[in-house]
Amino acid sequence: MSDTDMKSSNVVWHAPVTTREARERRNGHKGVIIWFTGLSGAGKSTVAHALEDSLHSMGCHTFTLDGDNVRHGLCGDLGFSDEDRVENIRRVGEMSKLFVEAGMITLTAFISPFRSDRDKVRELVAEGDLIEVYTRCSLEECEARDVKGLYKKARAGEIPHFTGISSPYEEPENPEIVVDTDKHDVDECMKQILTYLKVNGFVNTNGV
Amino acid sequence: MSDTDMKSSNVVWHAPVTTREARERRNGHKGVIIWFTGLSGAGKSTVAHALEDSLHSMGCHTFTLDGDNVRHGLCGDLGFSDEDRVENIRRVGEMSKLFVEAGMITLTAFISPFRSDRDKVRELVAEGDLIEVYTRCSLEECEARDVKGLYKKARAGEIPHFTGISSPYEEPENPEIVVDTDKHDVDECMKQILTYLKVNGFVNTNGV
Question: Which domain holds residue A75?
Answer without folding.
Answer: 31-186
